[in-house]
Amino acid sequence: MKTIVYKIGDTEASVWLSEAEKILKEGGLVAIPTETVYGLAANALDEGAAARIYEAKGRPSDNPLIVHIADMDMIGELVSELPDTARRLAEHFWPGPLTMILPKSEKVPYGTTGGLDTVAIRMPSHPAARKLIHETRIPLAAPSANTSGRPSPTRAEHVFDDLNGKIEMILDDGPVGIGIESTIIDLSGETPMLLRPGYITREMLSEVIGSVEVDPAILEVNKDKDFRPKAPGMKYKHYAPKGSLLLVSGDADKVVEKICLLSDEKRKEGFKVGIIATDETKDLYRCDSDCIVMSIGTRSDEDTISHNLFDILRRMDKAEADYIYSESFGEGIRGDAIMNRLLKAAGYQQIFV
Ligand code: AMP
Ligand code: MG
After folding, report:
1. Coil, strand or helix: which one is 339?
2. pLDDT tens digits, one per residue of 261-291
């Protein structure tokens, strides 16, 4: 299959819109920019189209898809119930990087919800995504547009690298803004529960709807100071770079010292080492041949870190790093969201110094 790429800024909106609409109506796949990461979109009400998403991504079929809408008129046919908490959160945070889990209507196929009686819904704020959904009136199932298990795509090139030849179209609008996937809150049970941390924090949600519980699976922190081996199997490994990633946490000076030590060891063994540093620390690493230091952003603005996170993991792959050592970023208000991704990418390999 030939994958067509349209640069949104260089193409008349009427052209990419009508071509994307045609593809979606025929059950095809269009990768779209959103404010969080690029999404792989298909008609959420067409079970066959949803099946193609799973096939293109190599995604396990029990992992449900998020359905994207453009306005509140579109939510009625998707849910069997709209609790007051959902209305209030929608008023505050939509359009934006928040996904709500709600009881599904009969119209939403199980092929979209991974067999569940609930459906995940989000109203993105990205102008191109909104325009496409608004004009076509098609609710779009759109998980991240990467091969399952690889780092999420924050640039159209990432989508191209993973899915060229497997999908009909990519709409390229440059790098996304936020860089990590939406916050997910489950409103289908008695108490609202945070299932995935993101740009919208638990505190921000609590300010609107009161108490929000947190799924304990979100952040597995290793409290031991000793090395924690990789979780067995690939079950817990997402976003993974090809090299082996280890997070080093603790006092800044000690972290730099430990990473230097570990990377020296591996380089002596003949491996290529990658170091994920920050603007503040990147010049502190002794690194010449067989070692590459990349800054993920600045600690004075943690949004730069989430913005660059997945891109840096992919750049480490391009640099063919065998072993990757990263500083940790748990301190800020979005520390949970950042560490959730990094820990998964590392298969929970983390040491404390
Ligand atoms: P992605 O779009 O690739 O970021 O993945 C969508 C995420 O939403 C996955 O982690 C899913 O498990 C989660 N999700 C989607 N629908 C539901 C649902 N009905 N209940 C719980 N989690 C969901
Ligand atoms: Mg994903």
Report:
1. helix
2. 999 999 999 999 999 999 999 999 987 777 9
Please report the DSSP string for 38-102 in residue order. -EEEEETT-HHHHHHHHHHHT--TTSPPEEE-SSGGGTTTTBS---HHHHHHHHHH-SSSEEEEE
Q: How far is the CA of 33 from the centre of ligand 2 (A)?
A: 14
CA–centroid distance, 117 to ligand 1, in Å, is 13
Q: For a pocket test of ligand 1, which of 34, 61, 63, 81 has the largest count of ligand atoms closer than 8 A to its C-beta? A: 63
Query: Which domains can be identified in the chain, with CATH numbers?
Result: 4-218 (3.90.870.10), 244-352 (3.40.50.11030)
Q: How far is the CA of 274 from the centre of ligand 1 (A)?
A: 31
Ligand 1 pocket residues where CB is under 6 Å: 63-64, 66, 101, 113, 116, 118-120, 143-144, 181, 184, 195
Pocket test for ligand 1, best of 34, 66, 122 (most atoms within 8 A of CB): 66
How far apart CA 294 and CA 313 sit, in angstroms, is 10
Ligand nearest to the CA of 68: 1
pTM for the predicted model, two decimal places: 0.94
Exposure pattern of 28-39 as b/e (b: 16+ CB <10 Å)?
bbbbbbbbbbbb
The per-residue pLDDT for 61 is 85
Q: How far is the CA of 144 from the centre of ligand 2 (A)?
A: 4
**Reduced to 3 states, what is the DSSP secondary structure of residue 34?**
coil
**199: CB partners within 8 A, 6+ apart:** 36, 96, 97, 178, 180, 182, 183, 306, 334, 337
What is d(CA 84, CA 207) in angstroms, rounded to the nearest whole number? 15
Residue nearest to atom 13 of ligand 1 (CA): 64
Give pLDDT tens digits for 98-143. Answer: 999 999 999 999 999 999 999 999 999 999 999 999 999 999 999 9
45-73 tens-digit pLDDT: 999 999 999 999 999 888 899 999 999 99
